Amino acid sequence: MRWTTPTPHRLAAPARSAGVRLLEKTTVADRACGAERLAAAAALAVQALIFVENFPFPWGLLLAAPALLLPWTASGWRSSIAWGLFALADVVPLLTRPLFVPNHLFLMTYVALALCLAGAGEGRVRSMAANARWILAGVMALAALQKLLSVDYSGFVGFMIATGGFAEPVLGRGAAAAGALADNAAQAAHFLASVPVDGATQALRVPAGFAAYARGAAVGIVVVEGALAALALFRPDRALFHVVYAGFLFVLGLVRSELLFLGALAMLGLLIACARPSRWRWLYVAILLVALPAATVRLARSASSLGEALDRAGLARRP
Amino acid sequence: MPLAQRWLVPLLLVAVASVQLARVSFGGQSRWRGGGFGMYSEFHPNKNQIWLRALEHPDAPPGRLTETEGAPATRRAVARCLRLRSRACLGELAATLPRDPTPRRLEIWQPAFDARAGTLSRRRVAALDF
Description:
heterodimer; A: about 325 residues; mainly alpha; 14 helices; about 0% strand; B: about 130 residues; alpha+beta; four-stranded antiparallel β-sheet
């Protein structure tokens, strides 16, 4: 180990301003490009929207405001206390309305807790990524397990395809297919609105071999989720993981527009990608740049705290 | 990396999901809710239905209870029972209904789809006479 006289052009800003001697090989500011800050900013943006969605007016907005301000502060975005408080706030609806909160609130709570525990030391980025990896693996493994355990899963996938609930932008191309999907949706709605009778059924228009098609789609979803769980756990640094995961997010966005859940999943990808210098992070940033503004617009048009604020201000535009 | 920093969050996720899976298996809870990440593994709870039948008049059409109609306590109980399909939940719902000396029955129905036959049906998943 050798001490040298520090020269201003060789030291990063904090050391220069403090005027202290550092080891020649000391890393003062790892990832100065701001990958860690970028990941934290993404997490804070998702957190803000989740507050807006899950807390009534004005609490949703009051909690979202500090989450949106923190990325602009010098170091508040990596404060354990701030993330701890966010995690505590997330827990409130989880405990008071557990049957009514969406799963991305659980996901965000785990992320906030992980960022709180990550500390402010040099291992923070590694800890963030490790926890994000485990959360993603857990979410995907559970999603696959729940589908395997559900007796209704295959039939549900078939129903969603037959009524345009899944992949409508793809399957609904062409007048005949779009008409069949619309007919099925109308017939299903009519049947479900009637008085239930044991043994009563409603036939929907499905093509020959539909059951095999539906089962294939159902199996495909489980296989992809299982593969993502395994990749997140064992190969999170490989390009294969990012390709499969980004593909999954892209298809998820096309099939079902669950924008906030999509944003939360993209945030996990970003946290994992930021563990090492890589360009994959920009893929997740791109997904977030589409999903989060769209989610904000949707929240503004719904009965969320943002929607109510706009309503009170006379600016509401409901669909 | 300290132990808590490394394992607390994954363990918490597994613990919450285990409780949710147990409640799904033994308590009639919807897979969509409760932190088990079971979205799209069965019909959404808002497709479930709760019907109230007058047992003395079997031919009379039953009435459907929804989350948007009735007294606030009833609406809350209906919303809960759509997500927690159990007799215990129906008991809580019955307690919020206006008193009536005649016997009645609350039923929770859930849709099911047979992809092979292409037919949609409903099945009764919980019922309570009171």
